[in-house]
Amino acid sequence: MSQSVIKTDVALVGAGIMSATLGALLRRLEPNWSISLFERLDAAAAESSDPWNNAGTGHSALCELNYTPRTADGDVNIDKALSINEQFQVSRQFWAYGVDNGILGDPSEFINPIPHVSFTHGEAGVDYLRKRYDRLAGQVLFEGMEFIDDPAMFTERLPLMSAGRDFSDPVALNWFTDGTDVDFGALTQQLINSIGRSGADIYFGHAVTNLSQQSDGSWIVKVRNLRTKEKVSVHAKFVFVGAGGGALHLLQKSGISEAKGFGGFPVSGEFFRCTNPDLIGEHQAKVYGQAAVGAPPMSVPHLDTRVINHKPGLLFGPYAGWSPKFLKSGKITDLPASIKPNNLLPMLSIAPQEFGLLKYLVSELAASRSDRVNTLREFAPRADGHDWELITAGQRVQVIRKTGVGGSLEFGTAVVTAADGTIGGLLGASPGASTAVPAMLQVLERCFPAEYKGWTPALTEMIPSFGQKLSDNRDLFRQVWDWTSASLALKRGSEVATADADRTPAPAV
Known about the structure:
Blueprint: E1 3-13, H1 17-29, E2 35-39, H2 79-100, E3 111-113, E4 116-121, H3 123-136, E5 146-148, H4 151-157, H5 159-162, E6 171-176, E7 180-182, H6 184-197, E8 201-204, E9 206-213, E10 219-225, E11 231-241, H7 247-254, E12 263-274, H8 277-281, E13 286-288, E14 302-308, E15 311-321, H9 334-338, H10 344-348, H11 350-353, H12 355-366, H13 369-376, E16 388-392, E17 396-403, E18 406-410, E19 413-417, E20 423-428, H14 436-447, H15 449-452, H16 456-462, H17 474-487, H18 493-498
Parallel strand pairs: 1-2, 1-11, 2-8, 4-13, 11-20
Antiparallel strand pairs: 3-7, 4-6, 5-6, 9-10, 10-11, 12-15, 12-16, 12-17, 13-14, 14-15, 17-18, 19-20
């Protein structure tokens, strides 16, 4: 069998939002570096970044209640919400810069304005949302949030959710008008098209099978062309593994010590997708509720407007499932193959710690279609199962991190980089894609410390708040917000009529 050799400065593994973002950043920072991207499927963003596979369509903590948990004394902790919103603003700035500078095309292909809404019912739920509103509404990043507990206003804003509702059970909303829906599949495709136009080599239908480091610190990446069966040897100075659920296996194969002790717990998801255009037209919002008692954060139910190919859609879920696969197109051997001597104890220790999660998964797997429709009716009381089809979402592999002799299950993302900076990767799930830009900035800082300081002017041009916290600087936030809203065509109503949206400049910092 023939074997070809490719030499490159940067090898990107996986054609999802993470690799696409890192490639786009590096192309602006080091235009002369060669970049090669390898994807085993035949299209970009066909796994976790696909809009129907990705449960998070712009996590900015405006509505996701798992980011504002109750405290033991009955208060609400907003620390994680502030952190995630701050990170989302960084991503939003890079996307606006991308539109302004020809990296990205029509922003309505990947981002659209959609209100973000938190929803609870019952006296305890209403009390919680009131406290959440009190803690968030005065924060710079959450200015404009509304608290609504009036049934008439609820009905005006959310007609699909009000129809047939018994308002003797009190309801409450935290409403943020200027939320967004993000199609990370379309965004990824635009970014990869851009780096391809700039000279990067993009290889679809190419599976990375192994990685080995050479004595000079460079890497030999073994790749197989799935169409011709040809074997390819890629010599790369730097490797990034952005392969979604497949990242753990590849980082393990790399042999770097920083990947030792990590395990993964795969969770699949299913959603109801609305097939009735009249119902879709009655609901224009992302409405997040509270997870059931004992359920994990990833199970937060939401009735979610999506905009894909300029067409609105409506999802409800998630309904958790389980499969040992680490990718939707993966193998049933993915989970057992990931178990190594260095992560066996951390993985075994999870079961007794996460009994609630296991109980939740068993109950979800046992639920009938009518059970699932009844869950939907908490949001849309008159829901008819005939108007909804069940679809399977992407696989998520939750991080199991070694802690002492045991381990802990993490519902988030983890950037893993080697001490010598020659390889990095991303593990985990939500908020994931929404915080892709700050995650990739972490990769750049850790893996290119000698260059990073010199990149500061360019990074500040791309991300005007670079090195600063918008939550501490109201004036800068407003400048950034106005600029990104204009460049990403997110202005509404009279704002569009009175503003030249395409000419609002980036803030001068």
